[in-house]
Amino acid sequence: MPTMIFVNLPVKDLGTSTAFYEALGYQRNPQFSDENASSIVISEHIHVMLLTEKFFSTFTKKAIADAGTTTESILCISAESREAVDVLADKALAAGGSFSNEPMDEGFMYGRSFQDPDGHLWEVMWMDPAAAQGHES
């Protein structure tokens, strides 16, 4: 079985958050969803688990960060093209997400970012593999 990633995010309103990710074109997996959680399938190997804050708190002894004011991580997903980056970022903004940072354009690499309704930071990135191989930092 290939390695998979399940990103667990605390959310204030499960319905609003679920609708946001569905508006981006992702599917909710009902098998792992209930009144406490929505399992959102980003790809075959990437899933986002939207957990109500109350349910999320049962998995940790730490305080839950308020993603609207604190950043713990920036989640980045790849896109197949520059255009696909723009499509997903525009969908996010239209679906209730908010602007995060100016687009990043390095020529061989292009990305945009947004915040979901709870303030979780996301980046969408495209990289030209041929150009990236010859790129030195």
UniProtKB/TrEMBL annotation:
Classification via InterPro entries: Glyas_Bleomycin-R_OHBP_Dase (IPR029068), Glyas_Fos-R_dOase_dom (IPR004360), VOC_core (IPR037523)
Xref: Pfam families: Glyoxalase
Residue ranges occupied by any VOC domain in the UniProt entry: 3-127
Family annotation (PANTHER family): BLR2408 PROTEIN, BLR2520 PROTEIN
Protein name: VOC domain-containing protein
Source organism of this protein record: Rhodococcus jostii
